[in-house]
């Protein structure tokens, strides 16, 4: 049997496009990249099953004419898993958008703080000594004091990120750069 | 007997999760009792499995009665039974801790009706991964536990958790896709995914193909185990989760990756083609990880970095590929699961008692709560490998195995391991001396009212509400510059002045005593259930030391089984000819 060139080309193309999208900061594109990668992997599993044949159903085809059923079972399982995780990712993206009005991955403030600290002894830093915008992300409630309703937080956040398109691929503004 | 018990560690938590979901919401107490009972049953079953597997050897169960190379096989041998016992123990301890925390918090922070079912599903996934007898079932086990962990990590959906959760999810997805692609390629090359069958068939492949498959599997597992070049996601995502969640993640999830690496290196690819690479990875993991821990000032982040660092010890033992090295690695896995979980639970208690996990914000915890100090001190010394604790025994075993190997690279790793141990001691004793040992007066944790006002941010709060404490201190220092439009320099200067004012106690003398009293934080007593479960976990880690002899014996026998390979293969095929 001559091997087909179509399947490897499609698999390679899907992997390339998927990795490209996965490297984006925008979460929607990360999700799309994950879906492409998942489909590429499913096709890879399918092509692992060897030459095509008839449906592997007893009474419908002879065993030597059948295609290999095991990769198909594996693909079905993988599809279900991909589906569930894609749904969860969508929920996370929506939540992220509700919280910060943008769905790009934020910079870790704690990492920035550690990186900026080169001239001071690590032990001498007290979060209270830092300007509020330099404090670690989990230092205290970043958004508001207790008792605020969801609507208040959202309004404040909308003001805070005003003018930034939600699909901005550049670095998101941190509190330090905005004045 | 053992064949009846084998599926239970997977089945019980799954059924328990379904039941917990049904009764949740309306009957939280029933749900809590149910989850604890289920995990206690899993622990009992696991102990029985370990005793049986250690006495009679491994056992295999074909799920659904399908013939062996076709159906799904669950295999329990000494290694998987041992891992099950430890996993069930820490899971039970963490669950009781979480119940205590939920009760103390009035269940506000964690939506409890989701937490318990998800936690049980996580344990089912971990058990499935340990018992899996074929690669695809291992993948399914990974997916079960990862999906549950996504939910647990983003519980509550606050902004820091979402941010950390996304990093974690995307990295995990990538490793899962790599694993799945590797399974596809393995199947294309050999025509099977059954691990016992693969053990024979993979050896017949050309060397290049073997190397490709092995490295794909190892990369996928090393991402999950957080081995150095693939470890950056861990300290970024773990510290934001609720304390019990971080504890169980730190204890179990990376070790499932280590378990998969052990299986790959011993059962599937015993040739040792990548041992050198693993050695270097282990060295880098140990040293880079612990340097990260030394640089941090937050207890949870310090612990996350030590977690990464100590994975290096286990990888070192695996890469040695000798009986002594594997035994040391297995013992170290057991020790590290228990110790790391316990320390994260203690960090949760510290956060409760001190109001923060930042080392510089804490102080005087040893006088405020001597019990908490003991609960931190014992496992911390154990982690650093101070004799006579189990950490010392595990490290000693690994270093001895490294010296016995005789090559120059293992000797370099022995030196790296000793250095890592010392730096671990430095990192955790700094937490001790700052958070526990220094007198509370030196700690600035008392001007929390102003800190809280400043924390709200210059643009989000209308201005600091004058609180009693602030009015009192206003005499000795300028108004805190937290009004809108103020520059960073102003805020810094104000913060510095506030700090010096506190440190040099320039408040009016007449107020001196009153302010001292004011500075004592109104300490909430720690909830008894949380302290109790942490104390039990500390006792378990000490018990590991007491039981080190028999435990090391089991680890040694498990390592011999792994290197021999025939017990596993012949168990799965029931003595028949391997097709």
Automatic annotation (TrEMBL), chain A:
Locate the transmembrane regions by residue number: 6-23, 30-50, 70-94
Q: Listed GO cellular component terms?
A: plasma membrane
Could you tell me where the Acidic residues compositional bias lies? 121-131
Could you list this entry's UniProt keywords, alphabetically sorted: Cell membrane, Membrane, Transmembrane, Transmembrane helix
Question: How would you describe this protein's topology in the membrane?
Answer: Multi-pass membrane protein
Which subcellular locations apply to this protein? Cell membrane
Q: What is its main location?
A: membrane
Superkingdom of source: Bacteria
Q: Report residue spans for region: Disordered.
A: 113-179
Q: Which InterPro entries match?
A: CPA3_antiporter_subunitC, NUOK/Mnh_C1-like
Family in the record: Belongs to the CPA3 antiporters (TC 2.A.63) subunit C family.
Instruction: Output this protein's name.
Output: Multisubunit sodium/proton antiporter, MrpC subunit
The beginning of the lineage is:
Bacteria, Bacillati, Actinomycetota, Actinomycetes, Geodermatophilales
UniProtKB/TrEMBL annotation, chain B:
**Stored InterPro entries:** CPA3_Na-H_Antiporter_D (IPR050586), NADH_UbQ_OxRdtase (IPR003918), ND/Mrp_TM (IPR001750)
What GO cellular component term, any one, is given?
plasma membrane
Q: What is this protein called?
A: Multisubunit sodium/proton antiporter, MrpD subunit
Mention one GO molecular function.
NADH dehydrogenase (ubiquinone) activity
Q: Which UniProt keywords apply?
A: Cell membrane, Membrane, Transmembrane, Transmembrane helix
Which residue range or ranges hold the NADH:quinone oxidoreductase/Mrp antiporter transmembrane domain? 132-418
Where along the chain is composition biased (Basic and acidic residues)?
Answer: 487-500
Q: Where is this region: Disordered?
A: 439-521
Looking up NCBIfam families in the UniProt record yields: PRK12665.1
What does the similarity note say? Answer: Belongs to the CPA3 antiporters (TC 2.A.63) subunit D family.
Where is composition skewed (Low complexity) in this entry? 443-460
* Compartments where found: Cell membrane; Membrane
Q: Which residues form a coiled coil?
A: none
Main subcellular location: membrane
According to its UniProt entry, the protein's GO biological process terms are: ATP synthesis coupled electron transport
